[in-house]
């Protein structure tokens, strides 16, 4: 049976956090006021039974959730995984989710490669990827957001810049943009371009969702998008610039997948997202933004 779809983006719900099993005990005690929604990957949760499945349901019944895919391989050579898509559609309906996003990358051929690889930036790749996104939207019955991805190699034969490629795919597929500001920063350092100039070339008017995260710096200076450390100042500055260009509230999620600290520590970064939204976009200020004592909500 389909569940009620929660409304996201009213009152103080524009800042959110990735839903991780390690955080469930703390969240069961109380959900900080700054956390207005959670994000889950359908590959990790769809069909989940036992305690984990019950825990998820307890939260989706009370809080809005966003669905962020990891393995559709939108630009990959293999056929789209229709089984995964239908499973995702049913999972979203079951838990009342109304937003789905996926990476603008590829990650599978005959089998999954467990890495997000860059798509060749050619006109042919634009058409191919846009057609696959259109099919995804048909099966899910909604427009999706596609995320600008981090990369560590430049695919050969490029006919356009990365920003031009993202814009072309989004416009040709008539989908939405999932903006990841940390991915922009990582790529800008690895490939030596101005992240703020790149930001201005994206179709920000189509932004439906934003990611912010930390990264790791290798000994040789290569940046790796690990989501395993604190967000650094240049990434916060890029997020602020994005809000200024977008000009309206947009759901923004803090990603943290490794080296997960205590919930209180993560909440401080979620509160920083909320502060930027308040400063740039004029959203109401949360009580939880007061450093001395973070407001919380009980999970019944």
Distance between the termini: 23 Å
What would the average pLDDT be, to the nearest integer? 88
Rg calculated over all Cα atoms: 18 Å
- Which H/E pattern describes the elements? EHEEHHEHEEEHEHEHHEEEHEHE
Helix content: 25-40%
Shape: globular
Structural class: alpha/beta
The percentage of residues in β strands lies in 15-25%
Biggest sheet: strands, sense, closure? Answer: 8 strands, parallel, barrel
In DSSP terms (H or I, runs of 4 or more residues), the helix count works out at 10
Summarize the structure.
The protein is α/β, with parallel strands linked by helices and 300 residues long.
Index terms:
300 residues, alpha/beta, 8-stranded parallel beta barrel, two-stranded antiparallel ribbon, disordered N terminus
Topology:
Layout: E1 15-18, H1 24-29, E2 31-32, E3 37-40, H2 42-45, H3 50-60, E4 65-68, H4 82-94, E5 100-103, E6 106-108, E7 112-117, H5 123-140, E8 145-147, H6 162-173, E9 176-180, H7 181-191, H8 195-201, E10 207-212, E11 216-217, E12 223-224, H9 233-246, E13 252-254, H10 263-281, E14 296-297
Parallel strand pairs: 1-3, 1-13, 3-4, 4-5, 5-8, 8-9, 9-10, 10-13
Antiparallel strand pairs: 2-14, 6-7, 11-12
Helix pairs in contact: 5-6, 8-9, 9-10
What does this structure look like?
With 300 residues, the protein is an alpha/beta fold. The chain is 38% helix and 17% strand. The protein is built from 10 helices and 14 strands. Strands 1-3-4-5-8-9-10-13 form an 8-stranded parallel beta barrel. A two-stranded antiparallel ribbon has the order 2-14. It has a two-stranded antiparallel sheet with strand order 6-7. The longest helix is centred in the last third of the chain and has 19 residues, at 263-281. It is globular, with a radius of gyration of 18 Å. It starts with 14 loop residues before the first strand and ends with a strand.
